[in-house]
Amino acid sequence: MIPAEKRKIINKLKPVIKKEKNFKKEKKEKVEKKKKPEQPEDSLAKRVERLITLHKNTLEGDALKDKVVALICGRDPLEDEGKIRETFDKVITMCYLCLFDTFPRYTFFISAYIPIYMMWSLTAMEPIDGGILSLLPPLVALILAFITKEVITSILSGVFVGTIIYTIKKHLAWYNAISIVISLLVEKMSEEMEMIIFITLLGGLIIILKNSGGSRAYGKWAIQRVKSRKGTEFSAILMACLFFVDDYFNCLTTSTVLKPLAKANHISMEKLAFIIHAVANNICLLVPFSSWAAAIASNIKDAGLSGGISMFISTIPYNFYTVFVLFFIVLIVLCDIDFGAMKRYEELAKIQPSCPRGRPDDCMSPTESEKEGSVCDLLIPIVLLIGFTFLFILCTGGYLTDPSVSFITAFMNGDAVLSLSMSTLCTLACCAAMLIPRKQMTFNAFVESVKEGAQYMAPTIIILAVAWTMSGVTNELLGTGEYLGTLIIRFHIPVALIPTVFFLLVAVTAFALGNAWCCFGIFIPIASEICQTTSPESLAPTLAAVLGGSVFGDQASLLSETTILLVSTMECTIQSHFKTQLPYLLMVLVISTLTYVVCGFTKNNLLISWLAGLVILIITAVVWTLIYPHLKSSQRDMYFDNEDDMKKGLCSQKEEDEEFIKSFMYNDSLILSVCLKQKLLHDGILGEGSVAGFPGELKSRFGRGQALGKCTKI
Q1: d(CA 471, CA 554)
Q2: Which of 126, 230, 232, 440 has the most CB atoms at less than 10 Å from its CB?
């Protein structure tokens, strides 16, 4: 124990000792400061460079950007947003100085892109659990698309709804919703740049094939050999089966080649689009040498299952939906089964001229921009495109560079989109070498055709861009797929119903997202985990159910890339394609669901399941074919208001058919005139005569009031 006197002395000396320590500390710091050189003003840029070099091998994409910004600011970006915003101007200024010195000619573009890029980093867009609200953006997009008939505006509205939900959940400022939309749009377009290049080049190739006269020459050649509707429809099925390598390539190529033949045989563009779309999407799930098979095998491997391609092959016998769709397509063509909106489009196509809907540039007669070509001007580029595609897929898969890589492995691992872009570019070069020396096209005309093709595909690219943004909002930010996947885990589902539940849930998810491949990555790991813990023997049927539900949503959705690409080459709208094919797909969906129920309760017995499914499918088709003609026709009565409306082809129609009829008005109502004449001839009201003169003949024979009374139905 310290004596009281000594303690008093120590207390008196404490301030002196403390002052002495502080003096020594300050003196030491001054000495060290003199020895240590001052940091240069550009230390921030060097720190950024060092951090990127340090973490580039361990972090990627957004994680690397967030790490760099967090370390520069000295804290977690999510920890204190207000303080991080204080360093925003410093970071932007430093980036401006570095980039402007390097690229002085691109000041404007850098000024526009840097704030977007840094806003993306600083907002730290990590996914959240959106819950049931994650279903709201695609639901808003679909409802608005039906109401407004504007796809781009509807999807963008859904995107903004999703970003607003995200900003509210993350407690961010309102202006972050705008920056998130812009950032997602920029990121998705940069990720899908190969697809954009492919679509642009393919648009140029399509216009070149048309302007060179190849498409028209093939149309004339095919008309002489395929003279029936069934022959044309079976040609579409066969060609779509042959182009199994990729659904994008399949849809665009088959539709371009067969469109003139379908017009000549009076097949509606809606039915041709349905046949091509159904076969192109589903055939990829039955062939192990396709881009879909490669993606599925990769997801199976990532889920921890051995033998990705062998596991994919084992799912083929249980993929009831895919096989039923193809079987149903053949049944529709053989028995001429049309109902709903498809029947109305088909009835109109049967009596309309070969040059429909105000598009004279696509008729059989040559236009000013077209030349007299030959069939080879179409077939040779198509063959070259197919050959180059296979070659570049093998190249990107490593078959030509690595002797240890087998043919099948290379085909599985090849980059399909990059291969399609390169093959289209090479095909364009071959077309130039084939057409310009023969003076079939001049060099300037060739370049103008490519530009015209790029403009032709511009609306498609815009729709795809906003659809990709919607996918980013739902899948990457709000976790729509994860939320739907947790519903299966949350509820205790009987083992026999696991494939059925997965099939329906994945179908709904793919329909909302408009992308089958997103569902592969979400649901294949969930399905494998559940089946391995509950019922390993149900793994193959459950994975097949995931694949079948994904392809249903990809084909039926308004947001699907294949839907948008196919419609871009056909003379139909996204809405008309959607409403004509949906009843058929829903019918097959119900039949497939019942088949999966039978499969589950028979302990995955393939024979019983297939027999039950085929019997249900055939009975449904036959019963519907017998019942439908006796149902009330969906086409309502149509009336003319006055003689001027009759001449102009404008009509007022009850209920939903007004939009349908208006979509076909063109060239002084030629189609309407033909429709009315066919009806009046059939009823014996009008005698044989010219189409153009029949309104006057009708008026002179019956008078104005009686004539209007007779024109009640098409």
Answers
A1: 12
A2: 232
Per-residue pLDDT for 444 more than 50? yes
Look at residue 558 and tell me whether its pLDDT is greater than 60: yes
Residue matched to tokens 């009596």 = 351
Cα dihedral 446→452→453→454 (10° resolution): 110
Single-letter amino acid code for the residue at 290? S
Which SS3 state, helix, strand or coil, does residue 401 take? coil
Domain annotation covers residue 354: no
Examine residue 514 and state whether it is found in any structural domain, yes or no: no
**Residue 576 in contact with residue 273, Cβ under 8 Å?**
no
In a domain, 392, yes or no: no
Per-residue pLDDT for 82 more than 50?
no
User: Rounded mean pLDDT of 337-356?
Assistant: 74
Most confidently modeled range among 88-102, 206-220, 262-276: 262-276
Tell me the residue range of the domain where 32 lies: 1-36
667 has pLDDT over 70: no
Q: Is residue 24 exposed (0-12), middle (13-18) or buried (19+ Cβ within 10 Å)?
A: exposed
Instruction: Note the pLDDT of residue 486.
Output: 72
Q: Write out the two tokens for 218.
A: 């093939």
Instruction: Identify the pLDDT of residue 483.
Output: 76
Is residue 43 one of the residues assigned to a domain?
Answer: no
**Weakest-pLDDT range from 19-28, 336-345, 482-491:** 19-28
- Angle subtended at Cα 397 by Cα 409 and Cα 290, rounded to the nearest 5 degrees: 65
What integer pLDDT is reported at residue 63 of this predicted model? Answer: 52
Residues 6+ apart with CB under 8 A from 304: 525, 528
Residue with tokens 């642009």: 200
- What is the rounded average pLDDT of the residues 324-338? 87
pLDDT in tens, 381-424: 888 888 888 888 888 888 888 888 887 777 767 777 788 788 88
Element (H or E) spanning 438, and its range?
none
| Burial label, 390 (beta-carbon count in 10 A; 0-12, 13-18, 19+) | middle
Alpha helices in 36-132 (DSSP H): 43-55, 61-73, 81-86, 88-102, 107-123
For 48, half-sphere exposure in the C-beta direction (CA atoms, 13 angstrom radius) is 13
pLDDT at 253 over 90: no
In terms of average pLDDT, the best of 17-26, 149-158, 317-326 is 317-326
Q: What residues form DSSP beta bridges with 653?
A: 638
Q: Which stretch of DSSP H or E encloses residue 652? A: strand 652-653
Estimate the crossing angle of helix 269-283 against helix 229-242, to 10 degrees.
Answer: 30
Give buried/exposed letters for 509-522 (b at 16+ CB in 10 A, else e).
bbbbbbbbbbbbbb
Q: What is the DSSP annotation of 579-641?
A: HHHHHHHHHHHHHHHHHHHHHHHTTS-HHHHHHHHHHHHHHHHHHHHHHGGGSPPSSPPEE--
pLDDT at position 545 over 90: yes
Q: Could you give phi then psi for residue 36, rounded to 5 degrees?
A: -85, 125
Q: What is the pLDDT of residue 7?
A: 60
Mean pLDDT of 219-227: 74
Angle at 214 between CA 210 and CA 216, to 5 degrees: 75
Q: Distance between CA atoms of 689 and 67, rounded to whole angstroms?
A: 79
- Total domains in the fold of the chain: 2
Q: What is the 3-state secondary structure (H, E, C) of 225-245?
A: HCCCHHHHHHHHHHHHHHCCC
DSSP-assigned states of every residue in 255-293:
HHHHHHHHHHTT--HHHHHHHHHHHHHHHTTT-SSSHHH
